Amino acid sequence: MSDPIVVLRNVTKRYGRINAVDDVSFEVGKGETVALLGPSGCGKTTTLRIIAGFVGPEEGEVLIGGRDMRGVRPYERNIGLVFQDYALFPHMSVAQNVAYGLRQRRFERSKVVQRTADMLALVRLADLGERRPGELSGGQQQRVALARALATNPEVVLLDEPLSALDAKLREELRSELKDILRAVGSTTIFVTHDQEEAMSLAERIVVMQAGAVAQEGSPAEIYGAPRTRFVAEFIGRSNWFSGTLCPAISHGLREFKTRQGVALKVADRDDRAAGGWSLCIRPERVFVRKAADTAPPGAAWDNELPGTVTAVTYLGSEVRYAISLASGEVVSAIERNQDQPLHPPGTPCVICFSSRDSMLVADAG
Amino acid sequence: MRLRLARYADDAAHAGAIFIMAAAVVFLVLPLLVAITLSFDARDYLGTFPPPAFSTRWYIRFFSDSYFITGLKFSLVLATVSALVSAAIGVGAAVAIDSYTRHLRNLLTSAFLSPLVVPGVVVGFALLIFYARIGLSDGFLRLLGGHVLVTFPYVLRTTLASLRGIPSSLPQAALSLGANERRAFWTITFPLARAGIVAGAIFAFAFSLDDVAMTLFLTDPHHYTLPVALISMMYANFDLTIAAVAVLLVASTLVLMICLDWLVGLDRVVGAGVYRA
User: Fold this and answer.
1) Which letter does DSSP use for residue B54 in this model?
2) Cβ separation A54–B172 shorter than 8 A
3) pLDDT (tens digit per residue) in B180-237
């Protein structure tokens, strides 16, 4: 990262004995969109409020645009903030809301009018400038809040659960719109969310937080494809788990993993890993189900095969989900894209197949 | 059969509730109607009800009596100044209290609202001794101190209710947009809490206008309010001027209440919050 706009170094915030934010460090580059992802109470919102200046950290430092933010009040920072409840001023019109920051930052009068009009046009609300926020729909309010935050051209835009107050359908619509607007403005953005889909679709980089600390940081593909802990793997997407021990290498790049039930599985061995203390994780969409009577389809590198019985089938239109009870006792879920293939009804003896390359080794907690 | 009995019982209970309400209304309104009627009594003496003839003589008498008019003027000035001072102190205290943690907030609120539960006689007597000790002799200031003491809790209470209704994200949004704390207060918090502040100030005004118990202790021959003037007149020679003044006071209170309702909505003032989105 050549030009980090926001830098957090070893930031810690305590509430009583609890570390709400625990030694958090990350950087956000110019024009980058970063998601702070985690369950409620993981410290992501506190981290955002520390960057905004509403909360002072006990330890560590926060830099915005290279400037140390210690003792710098929220209004002395150049940030744009979109609150979860949007926090639109109910006694002002939409245009006055958008102009508020420009007025406070003492822009010229003509500039205020021009910039307000530009921002309203950007969020496609040019006609609604005279309305009161209370007269707008949730989606429109969200856009006003965004326009207001972006109007003063802040160094960094902070969004607190930007889409959580909207219903599911609208959320997806606004997500792409939000992405377009942020890209059009080229703003540096940090947003907080508990919705992994939101994080994956909006952010270039995700910081997964757990109990106040950073659990893992990386691109959506890295987080999903190579989770470092079981928490990260389970929080991002669905997963099947086998616990067991890692045995010495079978051949170059391939190792044996012996589950607690004694089943031997093959796993790709990317790094040199110590034996023992690992869990094997496989994403359901990488698990293929075939009838026990059929032979394996050619071409695929499914080098792990386990016999079992289909216990449940859920038809979801675009995909089909299976629950398979293995002969060794575990229950595995599999997701297949619906391409009008014949379904395996419950009770069907089957074989699940997955590739050693899709088997992710995750260190056990500790 | 049992079902029908239950329905009869329900109906009876409902009718009972209506009866109690009607009785309460009669009990509240009837004396008022008697006072209004008597204030227009044409007789010289307090005779049987209803009066045989009507006139406005008691009203004329009131407005031509310099003793009453001095009291009225003093009452209005005192109530206005009390309401303004109470509003300033009440808002300041409310803003400070609102920023504290819940525990401290409850404690301070109870402490500040305590003048409302202490009898006016006690407050008046205590102030009398206190003023003597500190040597405060100005008649107006003595009364103003007492009135502010008992009226500012009204402003505090309504303002706190208003502030409670304002999400903390609103002033924070203002701060994030570059407004300093003072500007955030004057441009966001104050306008949103204004209805509650005004409501509290009107309550303060009405209470100041009405108070007798505490005022009696602090009054002197040159500084007296209208209610005090009425009471001393009652002792001297009882006539129906008091009924005329009562009607005038009820009418002005009614006007105030209508103002309040028009300004903020009475249900909001009496209810929990006065914030409107």
Assistant:
1) B
2) yes
3) 999 999 999 999 888 888 888 988 998 898 888 899 888 888 889 988 888 888 888 7
Domain ranges of chain A: 4-228, 238-363
% of chain A with per-residue pLDDT over 90 = 59
Find chain A residues with C-beta within 8 A of B167's C-beta: 85, 87
Rounded CA separation A261/A263 (Å): 6
Residues of chain B with pLDDT under 50: 269-277
Listed in order, strand segments (DSSP E) in A161-252 are 189-193, 205-210, 213-218, 240-251
Distance CA(A75)–CA(A308), nearest Å, equals 62
Residue ranges covered by each domain of chain B: 64-270
> What is d(CA A277, CA A52) in angstroms, rounded to the nearest whole number?
40
Inter-chain touch B188–A89, beta carbons under 8 Å: yes
Comparing CB atoms, the residue among B167, B174, B179 nearest residue A85 is B167
CATH dotted code for A4-228: 3.40.50.300
Contact status of A90 with chain B (Cβ, < 8 Å): yes
Rama region for A60: left / alpha / beta (φ>0; ψ in -120 to 50; rest):
left
The total number of residues shown for chain B amounts to 277
Task: Compare all CA atoms of chain A with the CA of B189 and give the residue at the minimum distance.
Answer: A89
CATH top-level class of A238-363: mainly beta
CATH code reported for the domain at B64-270: 1.10.3720.10
Name the DSSP class of B223: B
Which residues of chain A, if any, have pLDDT below 50?
366
CB-CB contact of A288 with A353 (8 Å): yes
Provide the shortest C-alpha distance from residue A64 to chain B (in Å).
14
Give the residue numbers in B contacting A (CB under 8 Å), as ranges. 167, 169-170, 172-181, 183-184, 187-188, 191-192, 276-277
Tokens at B93, concatenated: 């205290």
